[in-house]
Structures are given as structure tokens and as C-alpha cells.
Design goal:
Elements (H helix, E strand, L loop, with lengths): L1 E4 L2 E13 L4 E8 L10 E8 L3 E11 L2 H4 L2 E18 L3 E7 L5 E3 L13 E2 L5 E8 L3 E4 L1 E2 L2 E20 L8 E19 L2 E6 L2 E3 L3 E8 L25 E7 L2 E2 L3 E5 L5 E4 L19
Antiparallel strand pairs: 1-2, 2-5, 3-4, 4-11, 5-10, 6-7, 6-8, 6-9, 6-13, 7-18, 12-13, 13-14, 14-15, 14-16, 14-17, 18-19, 18-20, 20-21
Length: 291
């Protein structure tokens, strides 16, 4: 597939591809976690479930154009979390759950990495073949005990849409361009229960849709809706899926309020903070809120 943009020509020699590269794992140890209102804070005995790691790749080759413009491009992956859910049951009746507070797809990754979701993006030079690769291991770290109750079972899933993109990142934001080269929709899930003091997987559904090859240029002057994970990626600034998770816990059916958990650098929920509605966040590409 040949891509022409801003006077530069590229050939996609390997479209977006994905593969699961690890078996499901359960890691055991002391981890810094926190679930506010449950009495769990700090470093506690925990299990970390890693139901599967995906590797995403793609390759382009430069075919010609203005070298100063070509070198403003990079190749990489941007990812949208389409759906997310976590649940855990404890022997004292505590039930812990996590999900997105706004019930809509959200960008995966930190805003500092925009327009990509990972820092493994590949700068393009004026001549040559350039490949990018990124790995994503969805995981959940949960305490072995909450208020004296032992973990009994847990389940959850992630559905994500991963996009291979060429992005022009010039000094002038009005000249920014993102070209969608392909998309993969994939899901990794898990169910596990404690048997003999060990947390064991009882299910590990994985599904990856066939890759979709694309050639869709997006410009700074365009008008693009919020990424739904299927039509457009989420390129909003100051939006990271991890910042928009809310948690609930219940004891014998009495449910806590749905609170937004603010995470520290170690992954523990440390405060209730009202995150701004992501609808007001501006797009990295257009500098305006998405319609």
C-alpha cells in the first residue's frame, strides 16, 4: 500500500500485526496497592494477574519527498481502550469492582507520549525501511485480603483497539498530520479462583479480529469525532484511561458510592479526585475539543 501525504511517499511493507506472546501468569508478592474505603493501603501481600501480553508491529519504507518534512514523521501505535471491567470476591463478603466512570472508550497511555500510546515510536529518516513494535500486558494487582477476608475469585477483561499510525510532528502544530495505516481490535480476559492458597486461572479468553488495513489522513484542520476505537483513535490531550477508572466495593450487597480513584506512581488508589469530563479535552491533532 502506497501512502502520499504532505509531498512525501511511503510504502506500507508490513501492515499492523498482533500476536499474543506470553502465557497467562500469576505473580505473587508484596505490591504497593490501595483500594480506598477497604482498609487496604500501602505495600501488601498481593497477586498480580497477567492474562496475556500482545505484541504489535508494522513497517513502512520511504519512497521520496522533501527530506526536512519526511524527518518530521514517526511510526508508532496509538491505542484506545474500548471496554474494561475488573471484579473480585472475598470470603468476608467484600466485592471489589473497577470500570470506566464515563462508560465510553478512552485513550490508553500517558498524555506525554501523544500522539502515540507508547514511547517505542520510530522516527522516520529520508531513506530506508522503518519498523515499530510495542507490547502491552494488561494486568490487575489485587490484595490477598481485605479486612480479614481472603480472596476467593476474580474475573475481568480488556477490549482494546490498536492503530498503526504515521504522525507528522512539526514545530507548527497547525501542520500536524496523522495517517491511519491499520487497526486491530483485540480482547484478553481472565477468571481465576484461589485453590489451596494459590490463585489459579480457570479461564483465559483471548480474541483478536483480523487486521484492517487503512489509508486515512487526518489533518490539524479536520473535524473528527471522539475516537470510538472502531472509526477513529482517541487523540485527546490530558486523557488517559487509568485516570478514569472508578471503583466500587460492597459488603453483603451494601454498595459504596462510585468513586473516582486517583492513582499514585506505584499503582495504588490514594485519593478520590473528580477527573474532568474527557469531552472537554482538546485533541492533540486539532487543538479543539472533539465534536
Amino acid at each position: 500500500m502506497i501512502i502520499s501525504v504532505d509531498g512525501c511517499t511511503f510504502t506500507v511493507t508490513a501492515g499492523i500485526a498482533g500476536e499474543y506472546v506470553t502465557e497467562p501468569q500469576v505473580k505473587e508478592g508484596e505490591e504497593p496497592v490501595g483500594f480506598i474505603g477497604t482498609g487496604v493501603t500501602g505495600t501488601v501481600d498481593s497477586w498480580t494477574l497477567v492474562p496475556g501480553e500482545i505484541k504489535l508491529t508494522g513497517t513502512v519504507e520511504t519512497q521520496g519527498g522533501n527530506p526536512p518534512i519526511i524527518t518530521e514523521f514517526s511510526l508508532g501505535i496509538v491505542q484506545t481502550v474500548v471496554a474494561f471491567q475488573r471484579n473480585a470476591l472475598y470470603s468476608n463478603g467484600y466485592t471489589l469492582s473497577e470500570q470506566f466512570q464515563y462508560g465510553q472508550p478512552l485513550r490508553d497511555g500517558e498524555p506525554a507520549e501523544l500522539p502515540f500510546s507508547y514511547d517505542e515510536s520510530t522516527p522516520i529518516e529520508d531513506v530506508g525501511s522503518f519498523s515499530t513494535a510495542a507490547e502491552d500486558p494488561p494486568m490487575w494487582t489485587i490484595p490477598k485480603q481485605i479486612n480479614g477476608g481472603d480472596l476467593v475469585s476474580t474475573n475481568g477483561f480488556n477490549t482494546l483497539s490498536s492503530w498503526l499510525i504515521l504522525a507528522r510532528q512539526p514545530a507548527d502544530p497547525q501542520s500536524r498530520v496523522v495517517v491511519l495505516l491499520g487497526r486491530i481490535l483485540w480482547t484478553v480476559g481472565f477468571s481465576a479462583q484461589v485453590v489451596g492458597g494459590k490463585l489459579q486461572f480457570t479461564g483465559n479468553p483471548q480474541n483478536m479480529a483480523p487486521p484492517v488495513n487503512l489509508n486515512i489522513p487526518m489533518t490539524a484542520g479536520g473535524d473528527y469525532p471522539v475516537g470510538d476505537g472502531l472509526t477513529w483513535p482517541d487523540l485527546r490531550e490530558d486523557v488517559s484511561g487509568n485516570d478514569y477508572i472508578y471503583g466500587q466495593w460492597s459488603v453483603h450487597g451494601v454498595t459504596s458510592p462510585a468513586d473516582r480513584w486517583s492513582y499514585d506512581d506505584e499503582g495504588g488508589a490514594v485519593a478520590f479526585i473528580e477527573q474532568p469530563d474527557p469531552a472537554v479535552a482538546v485533541s492533540w491533532l486539532t487543538g479543539q475539543p472533539s465534536p
